[in-house]
Amino acid sequence: MKVLSLNFLTCAVKTCKTQSDSYPLHPKDAELVQDDIELNEAFLINLLPRIDWKALSTTATELGFPALPSTPPTPEDLRADAKTLRDLHNLLLETQMVEGKLVCASCGHEYAVREGIANFLLPSHLV
Amino acid sequence: MLPTPDTSHVAYERVYEPAEDSFLLLDTLSSPSETSFLQTRFYVSPASGTPTPPEPLVVEIGPGSGVVIAFVTAHASTLLGTRNILTGAVDMNAYACAATTETVRRAVTSNPATASMAFLGAVQGDLVSPLRDHSVDVLIFNPPYVPTAQLPSREELPDGGRIDTENAFDEDSYLLSLSYAGGQDGMETTDRLLDSLPRVLSDRGCAYVLLCAQNKPEEVKERARCLGGGTWKVETVGLSGNQAGWEKLQIIRICREM
Ligand SMILES: [Zn+2]
């Protein structure tokens, strides 16, 4: 699963949906692999408006990536800054989490990730 | 006809094999009227001078073999006007998640000129429960639509619900039954999905849902219109060729007013 997917995933427990600390989920013992994907500037620029930047910054730091700028770069910033573009491309699209856990800070539930597939099925007492 | 994704690697004893319903989804999503709808809703040509809207996220719930979401991912620019889309999938069945990932990988490799490079992955889960509020722009759902006395339950297994390797046959039949058994009117799972649409669809979101005649499609459509307080548009956008049988199929498109 791409690191970008963590920006769209949240705890599956119903009562966590309204808890702000249920998002983003926190990677634990994460094993990462890198794909080699062609960089597409227009894609990244148009992706930014739909990214939750604060959540992405948390994810990046927790996965051991360098800290992201405190505010999202503007399209002009990105067009002028090849390094930031390259770093974002690498983090969001080329990096896959293949093993580990995703932890909800609200309820503490740990979702296992195996062979790149996170398991969001809940044990019956949590449904 | 756009090429159908290769699913020859999929183990059909535990993952739903592409069938008439899957192919109706492919035909509908690639029909001129739907590609025109999708492109109008989600894509603006850079040549028009208007800013391009953010990339749409297309998610299939219950992809099984992955043939449908692989088709959308591989033919992104043909269907949505641009390769710049995000795709993903959620399935209850871990084997289906793995099969989907491989089907998408193969389809993208075979269609490099039209494919999206941003398949986020397949996660194991119950319908849209792992997805963030208002995150999905296009949702695709080929539900378990066959009317059955009850929904499959792990508790019905002879040893009280525990799955182990000695129970592999039970597990396989459980996993396959998840893909077709729909409970009352074949609608128990689809009803849950419909109820979650206001939460999960974005402001420009829409959903393609497959129904069979026994699901009472006209009633379902009326109910879907009421999801957004009566403002949502619901239309039949695909019909299967076999209109004689009780199992005749249709695809409805549910969309928020923009
Ligand atoms: Zn939680």
TrEMBL record, chain A:
Gene Ontology BP term (one): tRNA methylation
Cellular component terms (Gene Ontology): cytoplasm; nucleus
InterPro entries noted in UniProt: Trm112, Trm112-like
Record keywords, A-Z: Cytoplasm, Nucleus
Cell location: Cytoplasm; Nucleus
Pfam families: Trm112p
GO molecular function: protein heterodimerization activity
Protein family membership: Belongs to the TRM112 family.
The protein's name in its UniProt record: Multifunctional methyltransferase subunit trm112
From TrEMBL, chain B:
Superkingdom assignment: Eukaryota
GO molecular function: nucleic acid binding; protein methyltransferase activity; S-adenosylmethionine-dependent methyltransferase activity
Coiled-coil segments on the chain, per record: none
GO cellular component annotations of the record: eRF1 methyltransferase complex
A biological-process GO annotation: methylation
UniProt-listed PROSITE patterns: N6_MTASE (PS00092)
Keyword Methyltransferase listed: yes
InterPro entries the UniProt entry points to: DNA_methylase_N6_adenine_CS, Euk-Arch_PrmC-MTase, SAM-dependent_MTases_sf
UniProt entry tagged with the keyword Iron: no
Family stated for the protein in its record: Belongs to the eukaryotic/archaeal PrmC-related family.
Protein name as it appears in the record: Methyltransferase small domain-containing protein
Biological source species: Xylaria multiplex
